[in-house]
Amino acid sequence: MLESIHMMETETISPEAEFRDGGKTSLYEGLKKQEQNMVVEDGFRLSSTGILVLDRTLGGGLPAGSLTYFSADPRSMSEVFLYQFTQSRKTYYFTTSRKPRFVLNDVINLGFDPSNIIFVDIYSEYYCTTCGDKSDNIGNEFIDSKIIDFTEFNLRNIANDSSGEEVNIIFDSFSFFMELTVNKGHIKQLVNVLYETTKDLGCLTYLYGVNNNKAQDIENFTFNICDVIFEAILDKGADKVISKLAIPKIRGMVPSADIIKFKIGEGIQIDTSKDIA
Q: What is the distance of C-alpha 148 from the center of its chain?
């Protein structure tokens, strides 16, 4: 143990040595060593979202390994995007707002095939006891912290089980975590775990959140970490309601400045026509 400590000390450059070298040895050489260990990938692979018209609008899909935040007006019924995303490949679907059976009913009633979906039931783990009764621990900091640990545990299992396989990960909704009574660093750690899991698997991960979230600082942190941002907007006109989708951020690509109109029908129906001024 003493020998290891001594070795560490001999490798450390003293402040005096830094001063004599004009600061070049420690700073430049340190950065140079880091660069030699970095793996840079040339180009990227596009993965289908499961919505063909949206893929064409994006130029083929989203970059594989993209962590996407889907900010939605809670009145817009934009969760249907999530249901259609599941049609592209095997999907781990984390439910926090409702029990999986209710989400499954909606998926089937809208005509989607549920065979790709594997539910991770965060809702019941948090809100229900082992007997199925409602839990009285809501808002308890210890319990809130444990539910984040439970989520990270499931993400690690997904990473182990899905290595080399093309998958989606969906959180419906991620706003649940932003409103937990825990240290903010714990939530930021979860976002980092999600980011790294997404990159390691090369999958598409969607974090669905309502845009009236009170935890603005955590939301901004998540916006910054995420590779892609979708924003679903509800415009109320004089005689009708118009649903719109903006995609202001796609890391690695040039995002489109166009606003995409959509409506809920047999899945997501995207209007490809252009408004003429």
A: 15
pTM: 0.83
Place of tokens 């070049």: 24
Place of tokens 């004009």: 22
User: How many Cα atoms within 13 Å fall on the side-chain side of residue 229?
Assistant: 17
User: Secondary structure of 182-215 in the HEC alphabet?
Assistant: CCHHHHHHHHHHHHHHHHHHCCEEEEEEECCCCC
Residue range 83-142, pLDDT digits in tens: 999 999 999 999 999 999 999 999 999 999 999 999 999 999 999 877 777 777 777 899
Q: 1: buried, middle or exposed (CB in 10 Å: 19+, 13-18, 0-12)?
A: exposed
Instruction: Report how far residue 69's alpha carbon sits from residue 212's, in angstroms, rounded to the nearest whole number.
Output: 14
| Residue 66: C-alpha distances to residues 31, 74, 75 (Å) | 27, 23, 26
Distance between CA atoms of residues 99 and 124, nearest Å: 7
